[in-house]
Write a sequence for this structure.
């Protein structure tokens, strides 16, 4: 287990500043909700944390390792926002998708068939999708797909789980189930969770820390502190940026 | 099985079945990566390689192999650098291949019989050496796919997830492009440059109709592809028609028949469901 440290992160694209001077430390076992208006740079920050984008300036460290080393060791699980376009029509069963999680991380050993079945069953049980194992991923609802993608990420046994808008395009009830699931995983398995969300109220309920991004870091602290200091202004801030 | 008495037909069947196995194996990934036209792009580059090889006085298939490999590297480079315009890049390679082929064949005045055999396939003229090369290439393709299967499948699902997991996606993408190029050159001998892509895509499209998992889809695609080659070759022997066309037409007929059967089964299931529903309503 480890802390995640972002030091002086800047990111610009075609002379447009997307992120500037973001520094924060995410303690092991934290559940951080990253919130902010559209175009604030939330997803970019998550991609920088995942090592998918190189910051113009600054660095991300996971424990003492730089992000590339951590990736190779399979420490990070990532659930992107736009996987849906690939999943639609993808001819794979839920069981096959989750089994891909076992290959995550270059050093991931090949499991024997029995162990693989057992792990897949356990992961699907964790996310409440054991009854879906033989269904094709493209035939599932958005909420069910999201749970399967989380199960796949968990199969890689990550210590840090990064999720980009996990409830985007998902109905209210399914969205509640996903938040509950992430809260349970964080509490019971001790996985550090960083989740970008547009649903500020729900996100704050299930996370223990809040990071407000609007190019720069506007706020980073506990959800109680956020509620106490930003409760009145947060909706106005959220919609006006 | 009169045709098995002929050595050339035995070689044709062997080369055809190996090609029928490796084409849908690569095709299964090509389809889910939404690169169905890559076979056509590389096929036209292979055509330029054939005519270029003839012009330089080297074995045309070797010329095709070298240029197709270079084309595959180029297509992959453009796909990585300009992801939003990947199809446009592929189209440019496609046209370049065709243009070069026209120029090379005009310069060398390549005999039309030779050109046609590469365009439409010449499986009947496959030599023992060709069979040996096709077997070697087939074994190499299957071995690489076996070892990289999970990683290639994950990358087809979402390349970002694979990247975050520490998988060297650039390397695997390049390997995949080179495998595709190998399959194109091998398939070129069997069904020809113009139809090789069909053998990569059509059996996979048929298998997709069955709505099964990824590995099962690949298994069914191989079965449909082998069936198409066997039926296509046999009918071409008796009807005295070019085998490339009969093989691909068989694959397309299998697709249409599968689709019709699936629709009929769907209609039957829906009718049974509504009858059961009406029966329940009546009883209530």
């Amino acid at each position: 287990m480890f802390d995640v440290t972002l030091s002086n992160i800047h990111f610009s694209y075609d002379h447009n500043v997307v992120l500037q001077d973001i520094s924060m430390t995410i303690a092991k076992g934290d559940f951080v909700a990253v919130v902010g208006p559209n175009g604030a740079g939330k997803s970019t920050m998550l991609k920088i944390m995942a090592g998918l984008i190189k910051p113009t300036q600054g660095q991300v460290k996971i424990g003492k390792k730089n992000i590339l080393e951590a990736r190779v060791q399979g420490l990070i699980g990532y659930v992107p926002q736009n996987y849906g376009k690939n999943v639609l029509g993808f001819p794979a069963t839920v069981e096959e998708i989750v089994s891909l999680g076992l290959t995550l991380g270059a050093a991931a050993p090949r499991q024997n068939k029995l162990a693989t079945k057992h792990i897949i069953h356990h992961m699907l049980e964790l996310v409440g999708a054991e009854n879906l194992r033989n269904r094709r991923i493209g035939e599932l609802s958005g909420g069910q797909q999201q749970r399967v993608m989380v199960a796949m990420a968990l199969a890689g046994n990550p210590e840090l789980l990064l999720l980009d808008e996990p409830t985007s395009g998902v109905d209210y009830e399914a969205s509640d189930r996903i938040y509950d699931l992430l809260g349970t995983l964080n509490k019971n398995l001790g996985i550090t969770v960083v989740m970008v969300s547009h649903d500020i109220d729900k996100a704050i309920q299930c996370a223990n820390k809040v990071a407000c991004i609007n190019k720069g870091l506007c706020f980073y602290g506990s959800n109680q502190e956020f509620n106490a200091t930003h409760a009145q202004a947060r909706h106005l801030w959220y919609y006006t940026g | 099985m009169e045709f098995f008495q002929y050595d050339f037909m035995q070689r044709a069947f062997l080369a055809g079945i190996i090609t029928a196995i490796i084409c849908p194996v690569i095709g299964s990934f090509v389809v889910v990566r939404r690169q169905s036209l890559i076979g056509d792009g590389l096929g036209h580059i292979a055509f330029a390689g054939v005519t270029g090889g003839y012009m330089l006085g080297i074995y045309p298939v070797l010329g095709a192999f070298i240029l197709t490999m270079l084309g595959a590297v180029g297509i992959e480079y453009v796909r990585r650098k300009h992801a939003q315009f990947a199809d446009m890049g592929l189209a440019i390679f496609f046209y370049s291949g065709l243009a070069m082929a026209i120029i090379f064949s005009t310069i060398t005045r390549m005999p039309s019989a030779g050109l046609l055999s590469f365009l439409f396939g010449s499986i009947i003229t496959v030599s023992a050496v060709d069979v040996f090369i096709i077997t070697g290439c087939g074994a190499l393709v299957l071995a690489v796919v076996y070892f990289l299967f999970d990683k290639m499948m994950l990358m087809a699902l979402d390349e970002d997830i694979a990247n975050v997991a520490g998988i060297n996606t650039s390397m695997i993408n390049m390997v995949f492009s080179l495998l595709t190029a190998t399959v194109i050159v091998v398939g070129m001998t069997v069904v020809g440059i113009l139809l090789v892509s069909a053998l990569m895509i059509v059996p996979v499209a048929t298998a997709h109709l069955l709505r099964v998992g990824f590995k099962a889809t690949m298994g069914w695609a191989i079965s449909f592809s082998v069936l198409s080659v066997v039926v296509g070759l046999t009918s071409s022997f008796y009807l005295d028609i070019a085998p490339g066309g009969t093989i691909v037409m068989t694959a397309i007929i299998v697709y249409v028949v599968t689709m019709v059967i699936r629709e009929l089964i769907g209609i039957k299931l829906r009718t049974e469901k509504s009858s059961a529903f009406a029966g329940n309503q009546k009883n209530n």
Q: What stands out?
A: DSSP finds eleven helices and no strands in chain B. The mean pLDDT of chain B is 88. The CA atoms of residues 277 and 283 of chain B lie 10 Å apart.
